[in-house]
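Think of the structure tokens as a kind of shorthand, similar to the way a musician reads notation: each symbol stands for something richer, in this case the local conformation of the backbone. In the example below we present two proteins back to back. Begin with the first one, reading the sequence and then the tokens, and try to describe in your own words what changes along the chain.
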Amino acid sequence: MAIDYATLEVLSPVLVTATALGIGGWIFNNWLRMRHGYPLENSWGKAVYPKDNEAQARVQLLTQENAQLRAEIGSIKDRLASVERIVTDQGYDVARQIESLREARHEVTQ
């Protein structure tokens, strides 16, 4: 089954367009991955990490910042737990009841 010249002439723009779109999509995908910090992959799916010092320094800085933010979130959670314990503690309720009695007594004397 041979492809005649007319069929090849009709299919060639489609093949060229499909090839150009495939290559353009691959380039765009890799550009997005690099822009957002994802590692590139080789043809076997293994990550290809950048070998320059600037990228390694950036990764190290981001790792340090991530650790600092996690520590800060941990301390904020501890503080929030303390505040929740104070608010739900029985002593807070007693203090509120005393204040309401003072206000009621104050209103009666006026």
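Once you have a description of the first chain, move to the second and do the same.
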Amino acid sequence: MKPRTRARSLALQALYEIDLAGHALEDVLAARIEDYDLEDTLEDFASRLVRGVYPIRKELDGYIAEHAPEWPIDQVSIIDRNLIRMAVWEFAISQQTPVKVAINEAVELAKRYGSDSSSRFVNGVLGSLAERRNEISQALGQPHVTENKD
């Protein structure tokens, strides 16, 4: 697994534990970082990802629900939901990751950690949400996404 993919995997596991068990973000993040052997820059990336997604989960879930109307948000698997949240945070909020890269990484992690249909579901929802990245960015208080980031 590539180093940044491992960092995303750490973030996914942390967000999963927070959602499933309700453990405190800082405790979970510290434990997951201890479990992984990542360079400092990758630990920072994973930490920013978790800390970026966590406070806006409900807002991100609203966007997910709009693009997966056949699946009430509480019926979307915790893995899928967090992969979508992470990718949207990366391309619409942090704006440090090109849309295609964020989607591809989420799909690869869905293949690894999700169900048989997770990768298709994650890809489909993210494809729709990518078209709304400027709207999402503005709604969540971030500057306009430049079009040349693809």
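Compare your description with these statements about the second chain. DSSP finds eight helices and no strands in the chain.
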